[in-house]
Design brief:
By secondary structure, the chain is mainly alpha-helical. It has 2 helices and 2 strands, in the order αββα. Helix 1 packs antiparallel against helix 2.
């Protein structure tokens, strides 16, 4: 460490570490949310195509790397269930995202306040009280 560098106080290191952890959590949630939104959109498209099909049309679903013959009714039911599950998970992730963003704002505010130090100037205070 050079002469001009200052060591970061432990309380500040702790707060910065907490803030970094919150940022990582937020990034993870946003990635999960993006993946789910993509999956949700894909399900919506599949439902649209399937609803246009007649009941007599032969339909298939993927099972790993193979296609399996199915019925329109079964696939519609499975896709609707998948869509509902994705909606529920998106709602949960959105709530988590909001909570983490609030916590991040609080952590930033706390760090700023800690760096500013006390709001009253140091030293004794003079009061003009008549004697």
């Amino acid at each position: 460490m050079s002469v001009g560098e200052q060591q970061i106080p432990p309380w500040l290191q702790e707060q910065v570490g907490r803030m970094q952890q919150l940022q990582q959590n937020l990034q993870s949630i946003m990635m999960q949310k993006q993946h789910l939104e993509s999956e949700h959109l894909e399900t919506e498209r599949a439902l649209e195509v399937l609803q246009k099909a007649t009941d007599d049309d032969i339909v298939y679903k993927t099972a790993g790397s193979i296609l399996v013959k199915s019925t329109k009714a079964v696939l519609l039911s499975e896709l609707e269930e998948k869509k509902e599950l994705a909606n529920t998970r998106l709602t949960v992730l959105s709530k988590q995202e909001s909570r983490i963003k609030e916590n991040l704002k609080e952590a930033e505010t706390k760090i700023r306040e800690m760096l500013r130090g006390p709001t009253t100037p140091p030293g004794p205070q003079k009061t003009d009280v008549p004697k």
